[in-house]
TrEMBL record, chains A, B:
Serine hydrolase involved in the detoxification of formaldehyde. This is S-formylglutathione hydrolase. It catalyses: S-formylglutathione + H2O = formate + glutathione + H(+). Signal peptide: none annotated. The active site is at residues 147, 223, 256. Belongs to the esterase D family. Keywords: Hydrolase, Serine esterase. GO terms for molecular function: carboxylic ester hydrolase activity; S-formylglutathione hydrolase activity. The gene is fghA. It comes from Sphingomonas mucosissima. InterPro entries: AB_hydrolase_fold, Esterase-like, S-formylglutathione_hydrol. One of its GO terms (biological process) is formaldehyde catabolic process. GO terms for cellular component: cytosol.
Length: 276, 276
């Protein structure tokens, strides 16, 4: 693992790191904020999965998470959203291909060799974190994310309920099987058999019996993607039918940008801190 | 004035605006955060002047000022650092020309026609703000800035002590007459007569009798520009000799980046709020 940058922030260290990923076959970059802590202390980890077009950099620059993570003593990790590079397949659509990995393990060509973000986030990157950051206590993990990353957070948590003690999301894609972004991506990465899509759809996973503890979701009601792509009502219905304790907060006047995410970031960190 | 974007953030509105500047002969872009407030309320204004290579966007993305401005009810304005455009003179050095206006009114060619950031910040932009944002109470103004923008904040405040009830700076260039960045810029914009430079040098202005109320300066001691370019000791000596109440806080381990600025931003906003 290579350190690209480290800089003191709110008493802790904001770092950006790169490593060669066996899973994606590419170099992968992520950011990690290590809050101030006494030597030898072990700290809980909050994963933040980013949305379409984003890399680790968007939330690192604009997410305003460091103050709250320093206060609560939480490590904040922001992975990339896909493998990248000239040798990696891509698409002209910004909602598919590089920057749009949808947190799936692709099975279709030409994506299958590199687009394995499920395994990267679920297995390879946590193992790297455990090796490289001994302060990270992986017995205490939470996960959150924005938009496509909110979808990632929900589906990864639903498939791994023992791993995550805290789950939340900002404007998640509630059901990729039920929106144009998701249908294109799942068809492209997994092929036309929709039965294979269900393990990457929060609402389908819940309908099949997957369960979560309490779930916090913030959603701006002025979000331009709300009606066509995000569809929080589908998640609300799925949680209601399954008895999942969803706090869906419709935030009046907020859009889909980091002005929305940063406004409510400290709430999500406090939510995680209370459970970690 | 044209609205480029407006987005709800921390209950207020983060906007980016563009207008045709008579002073610079170009379009100029700035950002303005309007905190939540009751209709008819008038609010104090905090100007934030940015550093070399920056536009309004750097602090708008990375400055983490919105939460504190919302709490204290302060309007936050981030202008650009120079005129820009294909028809505007430039230089290969990132510390001179576009993105590096040094808050002077240039007298030398080819800069004199456009590089008039002193008049832009002191006169034209405040007049525009007064017209376009009636909630802005220009009887209550504070000013701060980072690096070259810290130099701008100090010199503009020293020349206009009646206008600014609050002054602070992050890692300011304390004396452009005494560092390579400043010497190149002042020579380029003003010509070789150093007597003309003094009104753009905080330490020289203080030596000539200019005064300020209390002044807050934060400076990281791991800042790579500290010894050669920023030289806070010169400001400390000038303030001591003049009896100016300087709080110079050397911040252990902090660098020159927005990780430093954002960490202490809320302190500077609280400093301004206490005086506005």
């Amino acid at each position: 693992m290579e350190t690209l940058s480290e800089s003191l922030a709110f008493g802790g260290t904001q770092g950006v790191y790169r490593h060669a990923s066996d899973v994606t076959g590419t170099d992968m970059t992520f950011s990690l904020y290590m809050p101030p802590h006494a030597k030898g202390t072990r700290l809980p980890v909050l994963w933040y999965l980013s949305g379409l077009t984003c890399s680790h950099a968007n939330v690192t620059d604009k997410g305003e998470y460091r103050r709250a993570c320093a206060e609560h003593g939480i490590i904040f990790i922001a992975p990339d959203t896909s493998p990248r590079g000239e040798d990696v397949p891509n698409d002209d659509d910004w909602a598919f291909g590089q920057g749009a990995g949808f947190y799936v393990d692709a099975t279709e060509e030409p994506w299958a060799a590199n687009f394995r973000m499920r395994s990267y986030i679920e297995d390879e990157l946590p193992a790297l974190i455990a090796r490289e950051f001994p302060a990270a206590d992986l017995a205490r993990q939470g996960i959150t994310g924005h938009s496509m990353g909110g979808h990632g957070a929900l589906t990864i948590a639903l498939r791994n309920p023992e791993r995550f003690k805290s789950v939340s999301a900002f404007a998640p894609i509630a059901s990729p099987m039920s929106c144009p972004w998701g249908e294109k991506a799942l068809n492209g990465y997994l092929g036309p058999d929709r039965a294979t899509w269900a393990e990457y759809d929060a609402c389908a996973l819940i309908a099949q019996g997957a369960r979560l503890g309490a779930l916090l979701v913030d959603q701006g009601d002025a979000d331009g993607f709300l009606a066509e792509q995000l569809k929080p009502a589908l998640l609300e219905r799925a949680c209601a039918e399954a008895g999942i304790d969803l706090s869906l907060r419709m935030q009046a006047g907020y859009d889909h940008s980091y002005n929305f995410v940063s406004t409510f970031m400290s709430d999500h960190i406090a939510w995680a801190a209370a459970r970690l």
